[in-house]
């Protein structure tokens, strides 16, 4: 992945007519003039400004650049990745694909037949509908996400998980956070969903995995015993992405970590094809990587998952802990999940634990693990490394235990 954000000085050439096409660009600031040589004449086709795309023709059909692009004044551009765009086009509706490709062919033939002195005035080219603006915003966010991965500005935080039976923090869940200077926090739901639309989700997953393996390795090297486990969230879609599982296994083996140090939490927001997921899970498990089913009891995280796939941990959605005392039904459901989990040899982790009363009740129900604000919020790697992330809160959680 090259530079996602490109700054050009006035007069700098972005590319020349005839150059190979690798990506398109969104103009963020400044202006770009497009011109081509026809015989001895230089024809200026247009000068494009903020919010406009350039280079989309070559990106779409791989033909060489139809014109030379030169910055007029200091200009900032965002790269639109060729592979990601094509993945979207290929996974899109075949009717939309046909229309886009037909428009592309037609545009090329119109451009080829324009009189030599024809200049497209900028106002004729811009018609930003609401849909188009939403598309540009997505392009921007995606480009910045690629930039964040390249420049390591995604933040991984660690939320402690409390082992109720042993009375200590025994592990963490890694949670990825993304802060943009001009936008504030971008919710993981938004950027993970965006990344999942293309294979960009693979480098996001690898990024988090690498940070987690760094923390585990540092803890091990510092002689921390017992070594806490750290869980990484992956969607089943991510897990079956070609090469993902072998990458996970290879990286974990390279780190020489004991079995169980790295866990994977499967989050699911849609229906699954179980066979490939089961195969990948079996492969990881053989290499000492256990699995947790996340958000159990909501959305698509259902009994069929437990029937078809083998999980070592079931994470009960926080809604159940929250309503345990005001709803006997919620309490009965947690109870039933614990009984079921024991029946299939899995441990239960209840999320969203906020009070000592909840913790006490979960202990009485035989729940093994708790996670939530009572135990601790997500904290930086430095607190995990210093032991701080578990210690004080652990004392608090066990105070009434
Ligand atoms: N006549 C034109 N008016 C506006 N933009 C153009 C014109 N001709 C080419 N372009 C843009 O200039 C880009 C040059 O590289 P591409 O051929 O990849 O994609 C082209 C379009 O984005």
Could you characterize what this model shows?
This protein has about 400 residues and is an alpha/beta fold. It has 16 helices and 17 strands. It folds into 2 domains: about 140 residues, Sandwich (Jelly Rolls); about 250 residues, EAL domain (TIM Barrel), CATH 3.20.20.450. The strands form 3 sheets. Strands 9-10-12-13-14-15-16-17 form an 8-stranded mixed barrel. A 4-stranded antiparallel β-sheet has the order 1-8-3-6. Helix 7 packs parallel to helix 9. The longest helix has 21 residues. The site of adenosine-3',5'-cyclic-monophosphate (CMP) has 15 residues, from strand 5 and helix 1.
Oligomer: single chain
Bound molecules: adenosine-3',5'-cyclic-monophosphate
Radius of gyration: 26 Å
Domain module tally = 2
In CATH terms, what is the architecture of the largest domain? Alpha-Beta Barrel
Shape, please? elongated
How far do the termini sit from each other?
A: 51 Å
Largest sheet: 8 strands, mixed, barrel
Indicate the low-confidence ranges by residue numbers. Answer: none
Determine the fraction of residues in helical runs and give it as a percent range: 40-55%
CATH class of the largest domain: Alpha Beta
| Continuous helix count | 16
Mean pLDDT: 88
DSSP strand content: 15-25%
How do the strands line up in the largest sheet? 9-10-12-13-14-15-16-17
How would you name the CATH homologous superfamily of the largest domain? EAL domain
The CATH topology of the largest domain: TIM Barrel
